[in-house]
Amino acid sequence: MNQPVIGEDFAGYQVQDLLGRGGMGSVYLVHNPHLERQEALKVLSMDAAGDFGRRFSLEARTAASLDHPHIVTIYHHGIDDGTPWFTMQYLAGHDLTDAGPMPVGEALAVLERVAAALDYAHSRGVIHRDVKPGNIQVHRDDSGRLDRVTVLDFGIARLAGATSLTAAGSFIGTLAYSAPETIEGHEPTGAADQYSLAATAYQLLTGTQIFSGSPAALIKAQTTDAPPPPSRQAPQLAPFDPVIARALAKRPEQRYPSCAAFVSALRGAIGRPGSGALPAQTPAGPPSAPRTAVPPVSRPITAPPPTASTPPSRPPMPPVTGPGRTPSADNRTTILLAVLAAIIAAMVIGGAIALATRDSGRHDDGAPQPVVPVLDTAALAAG
Asked: Which residue of the set 130, 142, 225, 241 is catalytic?
């Protein structure tokens, strides 16, 4: 097999650097001399013998047809001296292999974008088959904020499986994130990608994998063992326990209808969309009204304060005797009412006198004298 060498040309591209190696191949930074741009070149670690060349071309074209902002763009593909390769968009950033635990809000932002990419691919009949933190690349702006999330290696697991077309029950993927039905040799569906996404979410939130150990231990755990709840690693993640458990159900039909539905349930578990923080474990009561400070009043105490068994009574009014003392509000009200009553009584008496003298109060020539109007005492009192 022909392998790229840094500083030399490979399949018409100028190899500049090695970006990383994985179980299915290596990724190089290359320069496209025709378009004058940098691209990423992935070389698969397999021999394109027999029927693989046809399957590789078919799967590469399918992956290249995906057009989504959170899926890496495939540019070109081919086979060079028996080595299958393809070029894709070069994105600065890093994957999430060693990420976690991440802040809840940031982890949900990553998962929402990955879920959107997966559901888009599923609607076009493409299953990723190898969803894991290492296949999620993120980039941050100058302020450190997450500004891009991209899913890598769509269809690569299926391409790798093309080398074992005659081996029934062969498994391709990463055991720590693989769904039980995939390990058992069944054809994966979108539900299998959801299981892998849930395993990825568990790691981003807790910083640990749901299962670990030897390949045999991982196969047994993924197919038979109940997944540990996230709260076992971090008690504050308890609201996520039932959501993660459903997405990690052993039977595909028991999981969420889509990857987006799974992440939406995660978002709903924190009670407040977009908060990025979990609610308190003990419910808080309604906020109390702010208390207004009352200035102290200096006055003699004439009675002991009310006790719990005795209903509180109106505090006694301070005495109004003594020089310079101002009457209380109640005393002022009493005096005012007395004055008003005296005025009303005087007006009523005056009206009565006017009535009594109206007929007799004439001049000798018989001309009527002006009459003093009678006031409506009811209206006055009401006023």
From this structure: 130
